[in-house]
Amino acid sequence: MSARARRATAAAVLAAAAPLALPAAASAHGLQGKTDLPLPTWLFSWAAAIVLVVSFAALAALWPKPQLQEERRRRIGRLPEWLDVPAGAIGIAFFGIVVYAGFAGTQANAQANLATVFVYVHFWVGLAFVSVLLGNVFRSFNPWLALARGTGWTYARLRGGRAWSSPLAYPSWLGYWPTVAGIVAFAWVELCYQDKTHPENIAGLIEAYAVTQLAGMAAFGAETWSRRGDTFGVYFGVLSRLSIWAREDGVLYVRPPLSGAPQLPLLPGAVALLTVAIGSTSFDGFSNGSLWADVSPDLTDFFSNLGAGPQTAVQWASTLGLAVAILIVSGFFWLGVRGMQTVGRGHTARELAGRFAHTLIPIAFAYAVAHYFSLFAFQGQATGYLLSDPLGNGSNLFGTAKDTIDYNFVSSNAVWYVQVAALVTGHVCGLILAHDRAIALYPKPREAIRSQYWMLVVMVGFTSLGLWLLSAVRT
Amino acid sequence: MKTGTRWAVLGLVVVVAVVAFVIAQSGGGSSSSSQSARAPATGTAVNGTTTPAAPAPKVIVVRNVKPVGGVQDITVKKGGQVRFTVQSDSAQEIHVHGYDFHKNVPKNGSVSFSFPAKIDGGFVIELEKPGVQIASLKVQP
After folding, report:
1. Which of A38, A129, A404, A409 has the fewest CB atoms within 10 Å distance of its CB?
2. Using a CB-CB distance cutoff of 8 angstroms, which residues of chain A are in contact with residue B9?
3. Which residues pair with B86 in a beta bridge?
């Protein structure tokens, strides 16, 4: 609170222009010029019907022997590891430019500052799409990983070839949990934090994030930490399992669609990673809905009565909403797992949850596409003017500073079709992955089918929730 | 069932679903296209006659930097005309997102907007400086 007061005083002193942007509570990101229209009823009903028909047909008709459990990848050619050096340098350069823009650029208009748009649109949404289309590209460009690798290399050079030995062993119980915490933190900043679009704060936060990653890599080793604790690295890495492209030890492979997902390591926190991702995207949708518009004022009043200031009360209300959304999504998945546990013997709920965690990857991606496709399609066009004027101070480096966003670039109809297609496809992929895992896991085909009634409920539930969120949007 | 049969069943179901969807869609599509064909016609009629047949433009009253009666809804079909008036007891800048129209309303005065609905989607209309939403504009495709 005192920091806020100090900042307010500083702003008053600086007076004149720079109004410390009161965050617009209007739209979830404070970035959209155009928001999605609610999914029309006819499309909603059709999507739901298709989901049900496909699901039951799948139960009867899917293959009787596991097809995806072993990764049958085909070697394409070499994509040598030294390529990661220039890629990492590009990543570090981007990181530097974004942080610089956040601190030095305009604070008054978040849409005109590269930092805000880049972090929420290009990085968080864009890289998720890229990871599925092209594989785990981010790993090569990952700036903090590149910094750690570079530092490690220099260190070994100086010490006459003796590599840095990390002082701590990564505890096995920790698994993906640092990543889970990171996703919750990012979602909170994006959806609840009252200064979420303030460029300076974004720059400060990503700097703090990078420092944390470097500390984690120094303590536990760059490779280990980057595959467990680096939130963004792990999140994009998990999504890239949906890609047909894989790269390992400098070799590029192509693999059948979906065959990367079953290889998701069974680490503690794997389930939470995905349910938290789905839960936070759900809350993003839900907070744009009319139900939230009805409930949130009461919640805000409640927190105001507890003594919170008007903006802090709004922030607490959305924090509560986010937590509830994550709990509902997680609880729903665990309910399905509990159901599955009643089938056959010898499987604990924890084990089953882990074995079916990867079936949530396509659902998580489908939710991301359904909710962020339009943000990416429209706000992504900001690239044009931000390239020429990254700080929002009127420069025009490439002559594109006057470019504007064409909101007719994608019609509302097209957005609806993309949303529905994403959810239905994600649903089908989730079913396929669950089916394949079940027949590999259960010795009797009968048990496999019976266990899948439960997963079917989970998948239909998630898809219906996704469709409902899109249809309940309040503009 | 043999694997081949299973695939055949699955394929058949998907084909039936898609065909049914397309048929229903083309039905729905023709009705919506006839509607959208009608919309511009009304628009020209409005321009042609001196007394507009369209409903009276919505009036949004702003008191104490808040819209009276909560955030107002304005729904227009694409191709139609968006009309609304803002009355305010304080001087404000009104911003229509997406269309990016800015107009000032003086203290205890009013300002009117009228523009063609060229972009479909949802748009926030807000008091720019305090960042308070006063209306939401829906342009249906």
Report:
1. A404
2. 57, 60-61
3. B60, B111
CA dist., res. B134 & res. B86, Å (int): 9
Rounded to 10°, the helix A310-341/A445-471 angle is: 160
Cβ–Cβ contacts within 10 Å for residue A78, how many? Answer: 12
Q: What is the pLDDT of residues B108-126, one digit of tens each?
A: 999 999 999 999 999 989 9
| E strand segments, A149-273 | 245-248, 251-254
pLDDT band at A34 (very low <50, low <70, confident <90, very high): confident
Contacts of A53 (CB under 8 A, 6+ apart): B13, B17
Give, for A333, the enclosing helix (H) or strand (E).
helix A310-341
Local structure of residue A119 (DSSP, 8 states): I
Q: What is the DSSP track for A288-327? A: TBHHHHHHHHHHHHHHHHTT--HHHHHHHHHHHHHHHHHH
Q: Does B24 touch chain A (CB under 8 A)?
A: yes
- Any chain B CB within 8 A of the CB of A25? yes
pTM of the model: 0.84
- Contact at CB, A50 and B21, closer than 8 angstroms: yes
How many CB contacts within 8 angstroms connect chain A with chain B? 96
- ipTM computed for the complex: 0.73
Residues A2 and A300: their CA atoms lie apart, in Å, by 22
C-alpha A7/C-alpha A32 separation (Å) is: 27
Count other Cβ atoms within 10 Å, centred on residue A140: 20
**Residue in this structure with the two tokens 């949990």, named with its chain if needed:** A177
